[in-house]
Amino acid sequence: MLGVFGRVIGANDTGGTKHLLYSDWHCSVFMSQEGVYVFCDSAKFSLSCEPRQFCSNTSHLFILSKSGNILSFSKSQHLITAANTPPFRSIAATDDELYCISADEVLSVYSLNGFPNNLNTHRPLSMKIKSVACGRIQQGNRHVGHGDLETRTSPELIAALTPVTVTAIACGSWHSVCLTDTGDIYTWGSNEFGQLGCPSLNLERSRNLNDPLFSSDACVNLSALPVPVDLPEDVSIVAIACGSRHTACLSEHKQLLTFGWNGFGQLGFDAELRKMPGRYPHQGASDKVNRTSLPFPSQSELSLSCGSWCTIVRAME
């Protein structure tokens, strides 16, 4: 299922012709009865593999097949190339590097300078790695969870998270989220659009421009340390994903919880004023934890992913 401008729809609602698998600012991947296709610059390109996972950066879309092979799609040249790498089970990318986790939980990092023809790789960590995610690094936007805004050029343990057991991580463009073994989530980074799930200074100030008594003590635009999200008491999270400026979570009872920017309805509801009471429709955003029930059978196995401006929940019945 996917949301189209805030309306949650299923494949049958669109005639069953296409299933959205992945989307970023430049291209999208769809599956139909004919196969799997990449759409970029109004053109359609066929994929010859059965995909397991996607990630992308400014110049490339990377496809991990179910057999563990990696293909790269050049957004400018519209070429699909197979990389001569060993099998992997998970991938993530920045503009400079491709991060790959093997079945035995070894992290390999490939330089994208000359990739896939020149495969320069290194292994920065001796410990086993279960999950990897990548955000964006820009001047003044270095939010890596250490309580400061300094750049880290090598992996460093986040001290604030050592008391908990992290089971999954996700990154947006300027924020990060982690899931613990108790079903709680922690967020850090930019909160300009409420994507951390806590009161946003930017959003609250925009609603109180003419209020001389406005107090910003409880609001933040940025958190340099991981903070717990105040979830409803009956909610335990089992999966997380990040778009560019929004966060999506899947609960054990098959409910979708979202917060952040909603300019394209990626939170699962319309951004109109009458449909966003208590939120910030003039900014197209919400720093509240919004809950959406999903019309899936109880036995369905769900997966959650986000494109830059969309949220995708898939069901395997």
TrEMBL record:
RCC repeats: 129-182, 183-253
Any Pfam family hit: RCC1
Annotated InterPro entries: RCC1/BLIP-II (IPR009091), RCC1_domain-containing (IPR052830), Reg_chr_condens (IPR000408)
Name used for this protein in its record: Regulator of chromosome condensation rcc1
